[in-house]
Amino acid sequence: MRVWSRTLSGRLCKVSSSFSENMAEKDNQSLHNENNENNRVRTLRDHMNLTRTSAPSCIVSPPDASHFNFKPDIIQLLPSFHDLDVENPYLHLREFEEVCNTYNDLNCSMNTIRLKLFPFSLKDKAKTWLQNLRPGSIRARDEMQQQFLKKFFPYDRTNSFKRQITTFTQKPGETFYQCWDRYRDLLNTLPSSWFETRRLVSYFYEGLTPKDRQMMELTCNETFEDKDPNEAM
Questions:
Q1: Is the pTM of this model over 0.90?
Q2: Could you state, in order of their start, the residue ranges of all structural domains in the chain?
Q3: Where is mean pLDDT largest: 1-15, 129-143, 190-204, 205-219?
Q4: Residue 42 in 3-state DSSP?
Q5: Listed residue (161, 173, 162) closest to 209, CA to CA
Q6: Angle at which helices 110-117 and 141-152 cross, to 10°
Q7: Do the Cβ atoms of 144 and 59 come closer than 8 Å?
C-alpha cells in the first residue's frame, strides 16, 4: 500500500507504507533515547566533574571591537594592579593610558583599545572585582575608570591625599629642591583638575621655611607674588 507524503521542497509524492512506518519508528526511538538521557540518574562522577560555564562579561564590546588587532606583546608593557596598600589606583590609570597611547590601530577607537586591554592590567583581588561586576554594566572607558576609582580610590582615601597637599610643609633639614621634588611627587598621585594652580602654588609657598621663602623672592627679583600662577608653578 502506498501513502502520500510531502517532500522538503513541498511536492507531494507516493511512498510505501513500510517506509512511512520505518520513519515513524525512528522518530519514536529518537524521542525515547532523548527522554532516557534526560531521566538518567546523575552519578557522583557527574556531580564531581562539573561542566565549566563562562559568566557574561561586565564589558559591552563597542561595534568596532571585532576589528581590534590584538598584539600579545603589548600585554607585557601594561602596568599591573593587585589592590595592594602600596599601590595608587590613579597612578595605575595614568601608566595604563600611557601604554595605550603607544598602541596604534586604525580600525579601532582609543575607547575600544582601552576597554579591551584594561582587564589584562588587573591581577588577584582587582581582577576578581572586575569579574563580579554586573554583566553589561560597562560600555565606555569613562565608565570603567569611574567604577575603578570608586572601588579602589574611595572618598576617605582621596581626602587623605588632599590633606597632605593642603597642609604641606618643608621637613627639617630638607633642601628647597628636595622639598619641591616631594611636593611634585605628591601632586602626581591625584588628578591635576582637583586643585586650581594658584592654590597649589600657595600651598607650597606657605609650607616653606622663612629662609627658603626669602630665597624664592630673591630668585624672582622680589616679584614672585606678581607672577602668573602657571608661570610660578
A1: no
A2: 2-48, 63-153, 156-232
A3: 129-143
A4: coil
A5: 173
A6: 40
A7: yes
